[in-house]
Each structure stands twice: as C-alpha cells, then as structure tokens.
Amino acid sequence: MIQALVFYLFAAVAVASGVMVISARNPVHAVLFLILTFFNAAGLFLLAGAEFLAMVLVVVYVGAVAVLFLFVVMLLDINYLRLREGFLQYLPTGGLIGLILLAELVLVFGGWSFAPEAPLSVGSRTPDPSVMTNTEALGRLLYTDYFYLFQVAGLVLLVAMIGTILLTLRTRAGVRKQNIAAQVARTKAQSVEIRKVPSGGGI
What we know:
Blueprint: H1 2-23, H2 27-47, H3 51-75, H4 80-83, H5 91-110, H6 134-145, H7 147-168, H8 180-184, H9 188-191
Helix pairs in contact: 1-2, 2-3
C-alpha cells in the first residue's frame, strides 16, 4: 500500500512538473521544473528496482544536462518577448501539422499487433538480486549482446557533437583567439629579449 502511494505521488509530481516545463513563462523556472521531473523519474526507477538507472538519471541529466541548460539560459541575453511575437501568426499552421501527426499516430497504434514469436524474443530476465546486482546485469547485457550497437550510438553522438561545434563556430572580427600552431612554432629569438640596463638607469 505504501509503495503504491509513493508511486502515485512520484508519478503525479512528474506529470505536473512536466506540464509546467512547457507552460512556464520564465525559462529559468522551466529548467527548474525539468530538474524536478528528473528527480521524480529517478524515484520511479528506484521503485522499479533499477537503482543504477536512477543514479545515472540524477548524475547525468540533473547534474550535467539540466544544470548546463540553466546556466546557458541565465547567461544568454535573449529577448523572449520578441521571440513570441510571431506565435499567433504561425499557430494555424502548427495546429494543422499537429493534427496530421496525431492522425498518423492513431493510425499507427490502431493497427499495431504483436507477432506470435514476439514474447520469445524478449531479452534476458532480471536476475535474482542475491545472485547478481542490477548494475552488473545491465553491464553484462549492454557490453556483450549489444556491444556493437553501443559503440554505434557513441559514434553517432560524437558526430552530432562535432557537427554542433562546426555549425556554431563563427569568426568575428576584433576577437583575439588562441593559435596553438603559432604558439608551438615560436622560437627563442621571438620569445625572449635580453636588454642590458645600466646600473641605476632603470628600464
């Protein structure tokens, strides 16, 4: 009974904070509600016995991604009133696209059916905690059966990160940038200048 109450509490707070993420006017408040959503999702993972996923959710998403979003939103000087000026202008087009996507989702899930052999292709069952911990079972499954897919996912993320850096890299006039090649190629004659100062003359 207590576990069911805690589950409904975590689920209700997660759904409510998720709604507040997309409805909050202040972007800083939206990021804070996103952090609250992550914490409640971690609580749901703990109730399901996936303590490793709960800790990863808190450490990676709350400790890195959400905090990074918060600092970016706070440091960037963005005029949000100007961004919302054309909202009503594009509302009919956005609503039409949303209705089309909703109709497609209804058609897809309406015709969804499981193949008879689907239950046989289910992955390994969760082992007994007394024999193997949840983290060990997840690591063995991830780095044995899905090792190549794991590597491909990391490669895709690496390409996406490099692409993002290249898309946002801009050269602006008047901004001093570090040139590693020029620093490494400096010689002793270019770096050190020896002056003979007479006694009592100063520099």
